[in-house]
UniProtKB/TrEMBL annotation:
The lineage of its organism: Bacteria, Bacillati, Bacillota, Clostridia, Eubacteriales. PROSITE patterns: HTH_OST. This is NYN domain-containing protein. Residues 208-286 form the HTH OST-type domain. It holds the Pfam family NYN.
Amino acid sequence: MENGKVIALLIDAENVSPKYIKTIIDEVSMYGTPAYKRIYGDWTTPDMASWKKVLLEHNLTPIQQFSYTQGKNASDSAMIIDAMDILYGKNVDGFCLVSSDSDFTRLAARLRESRMFVIGMGESKTPTAFKAACDTFKYLDVLMGMKKSETDIKQEAEKKTPAKTASKKAARTTRKKDAEPPREKETEVPAAPSEPHHDEELAAAFVPLDMIVEKIREIIDFDSDEDGYMPLSQVGVMLGRLYADFDSRNYGFSKLHKLVDYTKEFETKYEPLENGGKNLLIRNKG
């Protein structure tokens, strides 16, 4: 799906925490422009107070739905009706349904029947039925964890930068005064390498990594060229079709090629393209 697509972002506020809002907006923006940004819930209840703080900041349109029956999710029907109205308006290319509730399973399936690209987002506790009904499903708790890790690495690097700058200035001053030979250039502190996470609660929701490796092998055997190679991007597309919730970030890797390199089960090489770029190819070892 191209980044120029128009997406309808619909959030079930009663089943998603407001702490994920930045992650949600960033992730859906990778697929297209969220022209609709609607969020559903009973805004008269105290539970919605934390969401109210982020509505204006992220330009979310709150949709009020009263809870007519205690203990029932009020936003389900309103969100489903709005989704169908938007679908019939024919001015979007896809939907992003944000909820950890299986009640939206049929909605996701119906949207896909109308050739809509459906992105699902929710926590790792989301029922399998809803995840499978979407074209692709993203785990918010995983994405949130990845962002925290990247932030920690960046902050650690920023802490070291002032000290390095001061050290370089002091070295220049010393050289001017004492004509000492220049000091060797300090090497940059590399970012921490990606590694699989070991959160057992999260990992239990994903397809095991060894099963992913075996499936990659099967895909390559089925559709590789005479030398046994095929584009890694094509492998990624096939994995996404087989497992709606597949994402290399689920296993702690920002990119699929990092996951592949980590397994040490495949050979890779770059193929030059006519436009000057490179295409990463992959094949089974042996």
